[in-house]
Amino acid sequence: MLTAHDLVFQAGKRALVDRASVSLAPGEVVAVLGENGAGKSTLLRLLAGERAPHAGTITLDGTPLACFSAAALARRRAVLPQDTRVAFGYSALEVVLLGRYPWTHGAPGSGDVALARAVLARVDAAHLESRLITTLSGGERARVHLARTVVQLVGDTPDARFLLLDEPTASLDLAHQHLALGLVRELARERRTGVLAVLHDLNLAAQYADRILLLKQGRVVADGAPDAVLSESLVSFAFSVRALVVPHPAGGRPLVVTTP
Amino acid sequence: MATVLRRGDDDPGGSGRLPAAPVIVALAAVLLVTSVLAAATGAFHIPPADVLAILAAQAGLADASANDARASAVLMQIRLPRVLFAMLAGAALAVSGAVLQGLFRNPLADPALIGISGGAALAAAWAIVLNTRLLPGVSALLGPFSLPVAAFAGALLAAWLVQRLASLDGATSIAVMLLAGIAISALAGAGIGLAAYVASDEQLRNITFWQLGTLSDATWRTLGALAVLAGAATCAGLRLARPLDALALGEAEARHLGVDIEQLKRIGMIAAALAVGTVTAFCGIIGFVALVAPHIVRIACGPAHRLLLPACALAGAILMTLADIVARTVLAPAELPIGVLTAFIGAPFFLLLLLRQRRLWGA
């Protein structure tokens, strides 16, 4: 269980994250929604341990995050930033293999290579394996880095894993958005992984998330099941738009239509 | 699919790059040939076959009586230490360049361009001047190590300064890195000028000569000191391959993968400063080897440091040995300072790299 309690993170006098509490259990997919500047990415960075909060606590299975070594943490949770710029021309497969860093000493073995190839295939990037990461398009790059974070969590320890994704679908086309979120939901279900993903598309969140965390001005304004959080009043409040919520024609999830 | 299956696991990158083992073997073979050539070349020519015969005799593998005593003396007293010196210095510079480029996440990080060699030279110049005047005790104590120790301190200070200036929030600004290098080099130049001003005539000759970069000080004694210090630095650098690969993703990403960034930077900087400081102390400022060797290797074998670093050691040794051959023959019987030669080759190379990178940082 990854638990954050009353997190505060300030930039100057402005609180980017203001007394936010979050919990993430293995097996569930949590979507973080909110308008620009609501503190979604900052919250994710705090949970990743990238920044230390000015107040509040973050624990992983009851132990404060700060007590974990970087190496120990790397075997428990992986982080996908919005965009990763690789400094040199590594091939896509080499980049995915870097995800095996916490588990390998020396060179990655044939098992690691097979795993990396399998996951690359899962994100529809098998054909990119020999391409240089620096020559890939934004969407191709995003899939390769998603594969890297997925292979990072494969290991022989029984602990629960956590996957923190900052806008994993931002540069993906429609088919690949479903592919990516379908993959992480499968990870959550089958590999005891808690997934927290910052998303922009409310309907994508409604379809794939077990729980939605709605942020506005650094505060958590709602935290619950999609049909509870995606109400007309909450959506119009959080995003400053008019919202109409109808049942999805293909299934019970809510469908949100917005107008200015 | 067939190509995927055929590709071995020792080449997980694919990308039509050269595989690891043959590259290392080929580079080692080229280095061997180059070094024999370098030992043969000079004012007193020793045929390559004789070089091998003399070396075999020295190793006790062949009869020494067949060899010319004069050739044997020249080879063992002058040529061999010099060739080994060039090889070691080239290897140390190239590996330190690759490590610095990995740490700064940019192929333009050359120790001479970002002020690290300048810092080393400044400290070494003052060590030369102060040695006989103020600190005879210290130099007696440290022997051949006194100059490299001073240069190491200067190099480390410069490296630390550049890194502090150029990095902000886990990202490195290349422009700031190069500008800081200019400032530190200018400062070092002024400091060396001041040292030259107060130096005695003999010290001045030493300082000027060595500011240009030269291998003329290569003796068995200095070679020993270089081998210990630069060798240790190179070995430390070679061990950083895995974390340097992870760092290519960015500092935050590398930390998420479990890399201890602070330790990586500390060890990398110390290793690079020790290598550059030692080489600078014995040979003066030799620029661009640290830039050219890693770049060529990256083109041939890709950027993965597990192969890049050892291949750089070999490529740097080859480049330096070749440069030394040219430096000793082009103006024979006079000798061109090797630093001048590497600058003539390396500076246009750097401009070429700059042109190709220009678009990246919106010039």
Overview of this protein structure:
The complex is a heterodimer of chains A (260) and B (363). Chain A is α/β, with parallel strands linked by helices and 260 residues long. Chain A has nine helices and twelve strands. Chain A has helices at residues 40-48, 70-74, 92-98, 110-122, 138-152, 174-190, 202-208, 226-229, 232-239, and strands spanning 2-11, 14-24, 29-34, 55-60, 63-64, 77-80, 161-166, 193-198, 211-216, 219-224, 242-247, 254-259. In chain A, strands 6-7-8-3-9-10 form a six-stranded mixed β-sheet, sandwiched between helices. In chain A, α3 runs parallel beside α5 (138-152) and α4 packs across α5. The longest helix of chain A is centred in the last third of the chain and has 17 residues, at 174-190. The radius of gyration of chain A is 18 Å and the shape is globular. The mean pLDDT of chain A is 93. Chain B has 363 residues and is mostly helical. Chain B is built from 16 helices and two strands. Chain B has helices spanning 2-6, 20-40, 48-58, 69-104, 116-133, 136-142, 146-166, 174-198, 201-212, 220-238, 241-247, 251-256, 261-283, 289-301, 305-329, 338-357; strands spanning 167-168, 171-172. In chain B, strands 1-2 form a two-stranded antiparallel sheet. In chain B, α4 packs across α15. Chain B is globular, with a radius of gyration of 21 Å. Chain B starts with a helix and ends in a 6-residue tail after the last helix. The chains are: A alpha/beta (260), B mainly alpha (363).
Largest interface pair: A-B, 42 and 32 residues
Task: Give me the side-by-side strand order of the main sheet of chain A.
Answer: 6-7-8-3-9-10
For the biggest sheet of chain A, the summary is:
6 strands, mixed
Oligomer status: heterodimer
Order of the strands making up the biggest sheet of chain B: 1-2
Figure out the total of helices of chain B: 16
**Share of helix among residues of chain B?**
over 70%
| Low-confidence residue ranges of chain A | none
